[in-house]
Amino acid sequence: xxxxxxxxxxxxxxxxxxxxxxxxxxxxxxxxxxxxxxxxxxxxxxxxxxxxxxxxxxxxxxxxxxxxxxxxxxxxxxxxxxxxxxxxxxxxxxxxxxxxxxxxxxxxxxxxxxxxxxxx
Length: 120
Fold this sequence. Notes:
120 residues, alpha+beta, three-stranded antiparallel sheet, two-stranded parallel ribbon
């Protein structure tokens, strides 16, 4: 598996050659502290450089609201609008998928990353 810091520039190099971007959307967490931070900084910089909006939602929008692994047996869960952590005895499969059509109503201007756990 490649590192976020290595993949993002290559991915966007290809995207920018083929498409004219008018908005950027991303999942602001919860998840890997470093991956979220790198993604946020990269996309915020791109948003400023291209003068286009950056919009975000939480990662639960892409995994049918299932628990998201934080570390070992600690998972993030979302109940109503609150995201907390719980310890689960059995592992939860981590399946994230992008929809064929993006529901823009899930995204807001609230783009600060969801740093739910301290950096390790």
